[in-house]
Write the structure tokens for this entry.
Amino acid sequence: MSQQPRSAIPLQPSALGSRPFLGIALMTLALFLLTLGDAMTKWLGQSYPVGQIICLRGVFMLLPIAIMTARSGGIASLRVNKPTDIALRSVLFIGTTALIATSMILLPLADAAAILFAGPLFITAIAPWILNEIVGWRRWTAVTVGFVGVLIMLRPTPEAIQILALIPLTAALCSAFRDVVTRKISPTESTNAIMLWSTLALITVSALSAPFGWVAPSFSELGMFATSGVVVGIAHYMMIESYRAADASVVSPFKYTAILWAVALGYIIWDDKPDAFILIGSFLVIGSGLYILYRETRRKK
């Protein structure tokens, strides 16, 4: 989750970045809702296959997307200017969503969330090659320190590595490519178009898994599917609005509140307690991410 795509309605410059407290509140709430959606995914994963979970969740994500489209730009905002770029972003969105959902189901919530924080490190590492951005030695050092934190969380030993931890690590890499592509296409494509076509692609591809073990949901669990989809859709909308209300340098650090929500929900629901590997590794990863953000802010001044 790096730079978000532009809004469907252009804002006056005076309206951008002028409400920092609102931006912080929106980002913090967005990360709570995303983590809550992850917790619902983990719960549903005990009874339903991943393909069914992300398909039904995607269907209900269409509701907040429809509301946002009606409020900002209407049908015209769904027009695609570069179909190939939208298709590439959709493929990366599908891969990221499937890997994150699998991570949440197979790993403790806090463990998966902590490893996913490697995403900003991957973005810094690949941005020079795709976006032609200049990355200095200080940020490369921060990336190196961050990956040391990732290795600690992977718990490498002479015998083995925690194989399951490679799933959220792969998800972090996939999400980094997704976010870099989003950054690249944001000048030409609206947020509404990016969200709608990516979600429709996700629903279509995940629906192909229907013959492989889908289960008829009970009424109450169908409600959880619906709640999860709406919650995730609203969270993405809130993140976009947070960047409109305040500068990225102000709100981006509050993405890391996700680890607090993940630890709390994991403990309350599943009695999961993060071990020393996760705590030390996440400290290094988060610290590196915050330093990269600091250097990025200074570079743009």
User: Anything to note?
Assistant: The radius of gyration is 19 Å. The longest helix spans residues 219-245. Residues 1-15 have pLDDT under 50 and may be disordered.
